[in-house]
Amino acid sequence: MKALCWEGVNKIAVERVPDPQILNDQDAILKVTLTTTCGSDLHLINGFVPTMQAGDVMGHEFMGEIVEVGPGVRRRKVGERVVVTSFIGCGRCWYCTHDLWSLCDNTNPNWDLEQTALGFESGGVFGYSHAMGGFKGSHSEYIRIPFADYGTFPVPDGVGDLDALYASDAAPTGWMGAHLGGVKPGDVVAVWGAGGVGQMAARAAQILGADQVIVIDRLPERLAMAERYMDTETIDYSRTDVQAELRERTGGRGPDVCIEAVGMEATTAPDGQYAYAMVKQRLRMPKERPTALREAIYACRKGGSVFVLGVFGGMVDNFPLGVLMNKGLTVSGAQQHGQRYVPMLLKRMASGELSTRHLATHEMPLDEAPRGYDLFKHKKDGCVRVAFRPHA
Ligand SMILES: NC(=O)c1ccc[n+]([C@@H]2O[C@H](COP(=O)([O-])OP(=O)(O)OC[C@H]3O[C@@H](n4cnc5c(N)ncnc54)[C@H](O)[C@@H]3O)[C@@H](O)[C@H]2O)c1
Ligand SMILES: [Zn+2]
Ligand SMILES: [Zn+2]
Hints:
CATH topology of the largest domain: Quinone Oxidoreductase, Chain A, domain 1
CATH class of the largest domain: Alpha Beta
Bound molecules: nicotinamide-adenine-dinucleotide, zinc ion
Strand content: 15-25%
Number of helices: 14
CATH architecture of the largest domain: Alpha-Beta Complex
Structural class: alpha/beta
Helix content: 25-40%
């Protein structure tokens, strides 16, 4: 079958790879009908995630049709149209039964690699390095889904493919940021990053009752999207002093909840801090540029909450611990616990309360995926997300 493979830093190609097979009783095989780019894939392409190997199939946000089930699959059947969460959960361990699905104890066969890097192991995830399980990704015609009973969700008839697709990763991730970040009715919420994840966090904050939601980015087309589809306020950080502007718009207090949806490759208006961070990242010293996170910590109101959705992989530099401590902030983060949120999100999509299709600014056959990633990585042509059709 065809699949998009990682071949090295900034090298990806559509290749022929073996068809997937049922390996365990609880596996299903999915015919992938739609699979999309995610900001996390850029960290792979740009070489910031270790333990990728040439030939690895990329992709973790997808939907499709079940074409085969193992003898241990109880809840799913062949022919069902389902969306699949990016993290794989066994459904039975302590973490899965406490709704902390991305921390599953049983789905990362390469747990020792992650132990070495981070001192713990997470659950496995599709198409995202050997340390995170070495699972083949969804940018392919077919994919093996372990623990299919827990990670696949039937899509209601009224929900279109381009909505259901983003119930895989962007929508539950955004929802988790607002929910675990503690957004309450009446809150002021600021979101750094107007990509798919940031936009979904902003929408979740609104649905959870926030009075004022402010989205921060520098890309005008993304800010316009947040205004048009979610009616949020926006700030262009390349033209504005974000700290001063947030104080101004919040009666001097700062947002109650700050959600970081940017991650380790943040940019800023070019100042000394950014140049310093870039040099260190190029030298692979501390690799990450936590500029949006730092800004969120400085901007948050005293005693407020900062939630980190953007992906970081290890050590960060220039982290304002003294601000966090003295200001009484709660700072937390997580990889998405999709299984907890997807059924609820699909219901909201079915009722029309939540829509994601506008994120798919580009659609194309999987054969054109390298072009799609070029648009997505360089934010050309207003690209927010590219949806690939492997069977087009
Ligand atoms: N926690 C999870 O489970 C999870 C799931 C999906 C994605 N992610 C991560 O979330 C992040 C966002 O994903 P995405 O798909 O929306 O990515 P994206 O690349 O489409 O969007 C990132 C946005 O951040 C903006 N940005 C860069 N620097 C900024 C700054 N200093 N201030 C404000 N905005 C800034 C960029 O202009 C861009 O619009 C990535 O790090 C991704 O890896 C995490
Ligand atoms: Zn993702
Ligand atoms: Zn588990």
